[in-house]
Design brief:
Elements (H helix, E strand, L loop, with lengths): L5 H4 L8 H12 L2 H18 L1 H4 L31 H37 L1 H15 L3 H12 L3 H27 L3 H8 L4 H38 L10 H7 L9 H28 L6
Amino acid sequence: MTEIKEDNVCQPREPLSASRFRRNWAKLRRNKAALVGAVLILMYVLSALLAPVLFTGNPSAPNLINSLETPTLKNPLGTDELGRSILGRIIYGSRISLLIAVGVVSVGIVLGIPLGLVSGYYGGKIDFSIQRVTDTLLAFPGFLLALALVAVLGVGFKNTVISIGISMVPMYIRLVRGCVLSVREEDYVEAARAVGTRDVIILIRHILPNVMVPITVQTSLSMGMAILFAAGLGFLGIGVQPPTPEWGTMLGSARSYLFHAPHVATFPGIAIFLAVLSFNLLGDGLRDALDPRFKI
């Protein structure tokens, strides 16, 4: 599973300012791979937002007369086994995949950040208890954990988001805890304690801002991983269910036609590949741009 190293980005930082933003933006612009990733992500977002404009009609409506057509001017990517436009289903599938990615990351952030903050700041028995649960979750590969949770919760969009989101929580807990351990002994945190500032205020005002950079980087990487996990569950038939146009479900349905109609599986596979690649490229670029020790 893709994960950033805490010691790469968990360093006390100067306050956010316009000059710092300009420096980070300049470094990001010089990273061509990150720009390519950002452009691809923008294309996916626009296709999701403008899906009814880019493809008129119902992408789930079957038309058996045109089943398994090769790419033509009318259907640039061909049709599937039910005669549905593959291009239209990929366009609408971007909505599903991006919604899953956003939902998964939201679950990881909402659960992982508070637990990581509390674990790293208080230590002791609280830290021990949280980390043992985290160790238990990390004992399972992320996809297998999501697979097991789907088997318990059931198939469907909501359960797919919850299952993959829970599998992402341990990464955020470990990442945030590592950052908190390196920040909580700083002089400004000690000064805040000395004047009687409440722990909640210290965590939110003094510690959390120093955790946001690695969280931002991890979020980009997790978005790509969430799309890949969702596609894997859909491919196995236990993720988002047909006729909803989801890329992994499209791949799963295309297995039987792989040799005499390879386009049915090729184009959804390319869509998944480019989506995951784009988020990984952007995440690497953000890490390089936001870490002052990286010189581009």
